[in-house]
Structure formats: C-alpha cells, structure tokens
Task: structure prediction
Amino acid sequence: MAITHYGRSETVTRALTDFGSEESFGQAAKRFQEHYKYPLHATTVGRVTKQIAEEAFEYVEQTFAHADDAIETASKGVEQMLVEVDGCEIRTAVLVPGESAHERSPVRQTPKQQKAITWREVRIGLARPLDSLSAIYVGKNASYPDVVSDLFHAAVLQGMSSTTRVVGVGDGGIGLKEALERQFPTIQFILDKPHLKDHLYETAEALGLGQHERADWVTSRLEAIGQGQGGTVKRELEALSAKTPHDRVKRVIGYLTRFADAVNYDHFTKHGYPLGSGEVESAHKTIPQKRLKLPGACWHPDSINPMVALRILRANDWWEDFWKERTEKQLAA
Result:
C-alpha cells in the first residue's frame, strides 16, 4: 500500500485535504475522527492540507497556462463572453521581533513574541459565455494584471476566440478597468451600478442634503447617467464645484470622467448585459471567504494563494481531475 512510517495512504491524505479545505483544521480533525474513528491533531490536518494546497496551486497555474494552446487553434469561439472581477480582504499574521505593525497580537504561550496583523486582498474573477450559467473561476492575492491574465486564460477555456465580444463588469478599483482593457481588446467595460450609486450617495451626504432630499438627488442623477446623460451630470457637478469647491464632488467628477463609456446602463440593458458584479461578489462567499474568513481565522501570507487554489478546484469542478493526475504521477514515480 506504499504507506511509510509516520506516513499515510492517498485515501487518508485526500480525506484530510477535503475536510481541511472546507472547515478549520481543528474541526476537520474532529470530522476525520467521526468518519474514520482515528484521532489526529489539528496541526497534522493543517500540515497535510497546506502541502496539497501547494500542489493545487501548481495544478491551477498549469491549467491556465495550457489555455494558450487552445486559443492558437481556435478559429471561432463563442459570440459573447462575460468576465467579472472583485476583491475581498483576508486577515494575515506574521511573527515580528517587536517592530511597529498595523495591528499587533501576542502569540499564545510565548508572550514575548508578537504577530503583525494585516489584511490582504484576494481578487476573484469569473469567465462564462453570456448565454451560459457555467463559469470558470480564478483567484489569488496578486495584482490586477496577474489576476486578469488568469481570467483571460479562463475565458479561453470557456471558448473565447479573437472574434468573441467580451463584456466586463467591475467596480472602480484603481487599475482594474485598465488591466481588463489591455488583456481583452474587444471588451465593453461596465461600471458596477451599485458602486456608482454609493459614490453618489456619499457625495450627496457630503453636500449636507437631508435623507429624503438625498435619495431624490441620487435617483435623478443615476437615471440621467444611465440614459447616456453622464456628460450633463458631470457639467452640473463641475458648476457646483466651481461655486463651492468640495473634495467629494471633485472625486465623483473624476469618477464620471474615468468611466464615461462604462455607465450607459439603459444601452447595456437593451443588449442583455448585467449592470452589477453581484455574481462574482457571491463567489467570494463560496470560494475564499467560506474557508479563509472563518471567525478568528488568521493566515500566513504564503498560505493564501495555495488555499484559494484548493477552493478554485472545487468551484471549477477540477477536484477529481487534480487527484487523478496526482495519483498517476505517484504511480509513475
């Protein structure tokens, strides 16, 4: 059975990884004992899960890299492709000798040691044909260009070719729209409508408008922008800013300038395009947050991308293929 001293079978390794990728390592150890009647410490579950997570990360990276071959041989792809990107923060901790940090916490049983607590953004993306509900997901703690590069490969795996019309939805994150446009030359970027609405509400509040007056002010301007009158709203705000300069008004003017071609919502609706990135925002709950954002969870930065890769395997239905390839490699060795 190829089980060595202090080793474990492939079946046990897979079970530990399965439990450890879904729940805390402590709870995973309890589940393993419940199902297999054998006690293990949480640290063992964590060690095995993280080791397999490293392999999962390599598997996901290689899968996306092989997509380059697909686009070279594709003559005609799907007609329209939807891509979405959004980010969420994951809590991380690193041992420090005592220097200043954003947040500090003593290490249990070793009070002289301290952890530097920071938050790192995990960016999740999805690609699917516009007329399909089946998506391929990408995700990692990385820059927009890196994540969007994976997203491009995911779109290729979904049938994108050079003739495919790409629709991209995202928030106003600095560099997101630009990264998408570099990677997808035919893209129509759509600014997430709820994010624009939030910006307008913050502006109305900064102007001192009352609650009811504020709602009317936002609704009228959001409707005008959606009808293709963004330039008119922008000029109105510029006139307002000229009379009573306000930083918040200047910010929303810059926002409308940057996304002038991404807010014609009535036009997008007529073409059947989504106006919000709710689909990828929901994916945050099931991919990174379900495991990496448990109450009290804190991760070493180096563990984030491998653990997200495990979750990506599940989301993309690559789990069985990953274990099959891993077993074949072990048998070949």
